[in-house]
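Task 17 of the worksheet. Students: predict the tertiary structure of the chain below and write it out as structure tokens. Keep your answer in the requested format; marks are given for formatting as well as content.
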Amino acid sequence: QVQLVESGGDLVQPGGSLRLSCAASGDISSIYAIGWYRQVPGKQRVLVASIVTGGPTNYAKSVEGRFTITRDTAKNTVYLQMNSLKPEDTARYYCRSSGLTEAWGQGTQVTVSS
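Model answer:
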């Protein structure tokens, strides 16, 4: 099994930056990819960015050019660097691992507001 813990969410002004972290533990070798998703109340959870182990990254069009997903294999952590934040980026952000099994973290809240 894989366990995921997100951190780094905060209240930030429009135009600001945040870096979210997703720390993985457990059966790390079973992970094929990790994705960052976000969800606002009353709406479905949507994919923001993903990274395949040793492979490519993928971004939603709404965040392309502003968000960057990276992976530190030594720390078993995936990061989501978020720049030029907009109020519409406000959501709870979750990371999800896929591979032999699927796992979700508990989420971290990002609020973009002046």
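Marker's comment: The mean pLDDT is 96. The two ends are 40 Å apart (CA to CA).
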